[in-house]
C-alpha cells in the first residue's frame, strides 16, 4: 500500500469563525477553496475546514505544528488575538512547546525542535 497524500479534516461548529481563525489568526495560506470548504497548507500536509460539525473537538485531538521560532510565533499569535493556553516551555522529551486552541477547542501544539534534538539528527550518517 502506498499513501500519496494526506490531510486532516475538521468539521467546525461555526465554519466562518473557524475559517477566520485558521486564515487570519494562525495565518495559514489557502491551498484551495470549494463550495462548503477551504483547504490550507499545513507544513508538509493540509488542513481542510469543511461543512459543519455538531460538537466541539474532544480533548484527545491535537494539531502539532513545528515552527522555527517559538517565542516569535507566540508573540505574533498574541498580536493577532490568539489566547495562549500554555506558555512556552521545555518539555521532558526535549521539545520547546506552547499551546493554544481553535474556536472549537482543537488543541494546537506549537513546537520548536532544538538543534541538538534527535529529531534533527540523521541516524543514517556515522
Describe this structure in words.
The protein is α/β, with parallel strands linked by helices and about 130 residues long. The protein has a single domain (about 5-120), classed as 2,3-Dihydroxybiphenyl 1,2-Dioxygenase, domain 1. Strand 2 and strand 3 (about 35-40) form a beta hairpin. Helices cover about 15% and strands about 35% of the residues.
Give the oligomer, counting copies of the same chain as homo and different chains as hetero. single chain
| Structure class | alpha/beta
Q: Could you tell me the CATH topology label.
A: 2,3-Dihydroxybiphenyl 1,2-Dioxygenase, domain 1
Number of helices: 2
CATH class call: Alpha Beta
Sheet with the most strands: spatial strand order: 1-4-3-2
Overall number of strands? 8
Name the poorly predicted regions: none
- Assign an overall shape: globular
* CATH architecture verdict: Roll
The largest sheet is: 4 strands, mixed
| Domain module count | 1
N-C termini distance: 31 Å
